[in-house]
Amino acid sequence: MPTLTSFKLTPWLPLAMIGLSLGYAATVLTRLPWWTLLLIAAVWIGIGLKLAWGKPLNARYRRIWPWSLVPLSLMGVYVYLADSFGSVDLGAVFFHLQAGIAEHGGAGKMISAIMYIVVMAGVLWSVAWLARHDQRWRLAERYFAIVLLAANPLLYGLGQRSVAIVADDGEWLNRRYMPPPTDEQQHKPNLLIMYLESLERTYGNDIFDDAYADLNTLGEQGLVFEGIRQMENTGWTMAGMIASQCGVPLMPAGLLHDTQFEPLTHVVPGVDCLGDILAAHGYRLSYLGGASTQFAGKGLFYRGHQFNTVKGKEEFAPDLEDPEYINSWGIYDDTLYDFTADEIRRLDEEDSGPWAVVNLNLAGHAPSGFPSQTCLDRQGEFDGQNILYSVECSAYEARVFIEELQQEGLLDNTLVVVLSDHLTMRVSVWDQLTALDRDNTLIMLGDHIEPQRIRRDATMLDVFPTILEKMGFELNEHRAGLGASLISEKPTLVEVHGIEILNERLRQETALQHRLWEGLAPQRREEEPQPTVQVTETPADQAGEIEIIY
Predict the structure, then answer these.
(1) 3-state secondary structure at position 484
(2) DSSP characters for 251-312?
(3) Where are the transmembrane segments (predicted)?
(4) Model pTM?
(5) What sign for the dihedral angle of Cα 361, 362, 366, 369?
(6) In a 10 Å sphere around its CB, with 0-12 CB exposed, 13-18 middle and 19+ buried, how is residue 153 labelled?
(7) How far is CA 257 from the centre of its chain?
(8) What backbone torsions phi and psi does residue 35 show, to the nearest 5 degrees?
(9) Is the CATH number 3.40.720.10 carried by domain 187-252+265-542?
(10) What is the distance between the alpha carbons of residues 227 and 459, in angstroms, rounded to a whole number?
(11) Lowest mean pLDDT among 103-112, 204-213, 503-512
C-alpha cells in the first residue's frame, strides 16, 4: 500500500493544482477570458500525463526542498496584488506599510488573501512533490527559479529603486520643483474640493451608458479638463490627494525615515501644500472623509498641513442618526454630504474670513463600490458586483449635493473642484476600462467660470497650480511644485517629456524624496545649497528632448 507521504499513484493531483493556478494567473495578468484558465489547466495536465511527470519509468525519490519555492511565493504575491488592484504600485505598498493600514475596510481582501495563501501552499506542495518524485523536475526547477525571479515585476521594481541610489542623476525632478507662491491673492474665493473615489473620466465613454451622466451635466456649467493621466506614485487615494494639493508624486519615506519600525508622524512635511498656503492667507480649513482618518496617514497629512478640522468615520460616529448605517470602509455618501453641508453652513455663519473644505467620498471604491440608501431607492436593487451602479450613484450624489448648496446660496464666491483621486483599480468592467485611453475627472465650477473644455496632456501634479491660479494666486511661470497651470500656455512635464520619461525619472529620483521627507530623514553630509529657481537643463537632460528652460 502506498504511504501517505509519497502519493505515488496520484500525480494528477499536483498537476491539476499547478495547471489551474497557471490558468488563473494567466487570466489575471492578461485580458484572457476566465474560461481560458480551464483550457490552460487541461493542456498542462495533458502534457504532464503524456510525459509521465511524477511517475517516470526510472523514478528515484529524493526528499529535497526545491529552489523555486521562494520565487514561486514571490510570484504569488505579485499575482495577488494584480488580482486585487489591477496594477501593482510598489510605492503604494511601501507607503501603506509605513503610514498604517488601521481601520481599513478591506475585509473582503483579507478573505481573498487567506484563500491565496491556501492555494499557494498547495502549489508549493505540488512543486515539491513533483521534484521529489521526478528527477527531470529536480533538474529543471532550479532554472525555473531563475526565470521566475527575472520575470517578477516586484523584484524588477525593487531593483530599479536600488539602482536609484547610485544613479548618475538622482535629482532630475527636484531641479524642476517650483516652490508655491507666498504673495497675496488678487481675490479670496472660498474653496470646495470634492474627491470622488476612483471616479475617473473614462466612465464617460459611451460603452458605460449613463453611469457618468450626472458629472457630464455638472461639466456643462463649468470648466472641464480632459487628458489628466496617471503617473507612477499618484495612483492611490493619499497619493492622488498629495499630487493635486502639493504638486509632487508621493515617494514613500522608505529608508529615509529615521525610525524604520515606527509609524510615520508626518506626511510629506518638506513641501508646502494647498493647506499651508491657504492657512497663511487666513483661510479656515476642514477635511471630511467617509473613511477613517487613521488609514494611510490621511489625518496626519491634513493636520500637518494646517487643516483646523479633520473628521472621518470615528469622529462622525457619535452623530449618526442610525449607527448601523455604515459600510466596511465608513459612512455612506448621503451621510457624508449632510455632514459636509453642515460644516459649510457653520463656516459661512461664522463670517470670519474665507474657508476651504475638502471631502472624500466612498461610493465608487473598488471592487464594487458602496452605493447609499438614497441610490438604492432611486436606482433599484444593487447586485453587489456592478461598479457602474456605484459610479452612477457617486456622480448623482455629487451633483445633487452641489445643486443643493447652490440653491442655499452657500457657494457664492466659491470655487468648486470636482475630481477623481486616482484611476480605479480592478472592477467588474476592468477589461473595458483598460482597453481605453484613461484619464481622471477634473471639473471646476464658480461664479466667473464660463463653460469650456480644455484638453491637455497632463497629470494630477498639474491640478495644484491650476487650483492656485483659479483662486487668484500669481504663480512664477504659471508653475507650482512639479505642475503647470492648465489654464496657462505653460507646457506640462508630460507635454514636454512624455509619461514614460517621467515614470523612468521618478524611479531614479532621490533628491525629491529627500525634499518631501525633510525633517524625518537622517542628516546627510553638507552639500552646496540648491537654488530655489529652476536651472537650465544639462546636456544629459536635453538628450533626445526639445530644449526647455525647466
Answers:
(1) strand
(2) ---GGG-S-TTS--S-SSTTS--HHHHHHHTT-EEEEEESB-TTGGGHHHHHHHTT-SEEE-
(3) 35-52, 64-81, 113-131, 143-159
(4) 0.80
(5) negative
(6) middle
(7) 22
(8) -70, -15
(9) yes
(10) 8
(11) 103-112
Condensed to tens digits (0 to 9), the pLDDT of residues 328-369 reads: 889 999 999 999 999 999 999 998 889 999 999 999 999 899
Could you tell me which of 515, 522, 529, 533 has the C-alpha nearest to residue 242? 515
Exposure letters 162-190 (e unless 16+ CB within 10 A, then b):
eebeeeeebbbbbbbbbebbeeebeebbb
Phi, psi of 447 (to 5 degrees): -60, -40
CA trace torsion 179, 233, 100, 304 (10° rounding): 10
CA distances from 343 to 241, 285, 288, 349, 529 (A): 20, 10, 9, 10, 44
Alpha carbons 224 and 441: distance in angstroms, whole number: 8
Burial of 31 (0-12, 13-18, 19+ CB in 10 A): exposed
Question: Would you give the end-to-end CA distance of the chain in angstroms?
Answer: 77
Partners of 357 in beta bridges: 192, 286
Sheet holding 284-289, edge to edge: 309-311, 284-289, 355-360, 190-196, 414-420, 442-445, 223-229, 452-459
Distance CA 95, CA 292 (A): 17
Helix and strand element counts for the chain (H, E): 21, 10
Strand 223-229 to strand 452-459: parallel, antiparallel, or no bridges (unpaired)? parallel
* Kind plus residue range of the DSSP H or E element containing 419: strand 414-420
DSSP β-ladder status, 442-445 and 414-420: antiparallel
The Cα–Cα gap between 496 and 537 comes to: 13
Rounded distance between C-alpha atoms, residue 417 and residue 192, angstroms: 6
Please answer whether residues 193 and 356 qualify as being in contact, where contact means their C-beta atoms are separated by less than 8 angstroms. yes
**CA separation, residue 1 to residues 5, 128, 411 (Å):** 12, 22, 81
Question: Alpha-carbon distance 210 to 212, whole Å?
Answer: 5
- DSSP string of 192-235, one letter each residue: EEEEETT--GGGGSGGGTTTTHHHHHHHTTSEEEEEEE--TT-S
Question: Do residues 457 and 496 touch, judged by C-beta distance below 8 A?
Answer: no
Q: How many CB atoms lie within 10 A of CB 269?
A: 17
Rounded CA-CA distance 361/365 in Å is 9
Q: Which residues pair with 284 in a beta bridge?
A: 355
d(CA 289, CA 272): 22
With cut-offs at 50, 70 and 90, classify the pLDDT of residue 545. Answer: very low
Mode of pairing for the β-strands spanning 483-484 and 479-480: antiparallel
The predicted model gives 303-316 an average pLDDT of 95
The separation between CA 180 and the C-alpha centre of its own chain, rounded to angstroms, equals 24
- Is residue 268 within 8 A of residue 337, CB to CB? The reply is no
**Which residue intervals of the chain bear CATH 3.40.720.10?**
187-252+265-542
Res 258 pLDDT > 50: no
Find the length of the chain.
550
CA 419 from chain center: how many Å?
Answer: 14
* Rounded Cα–Cα distance for residues 292 and 296 (Å): 9
Q: Torsions phi, psi of 359, nearest 5?
A: -135, 160
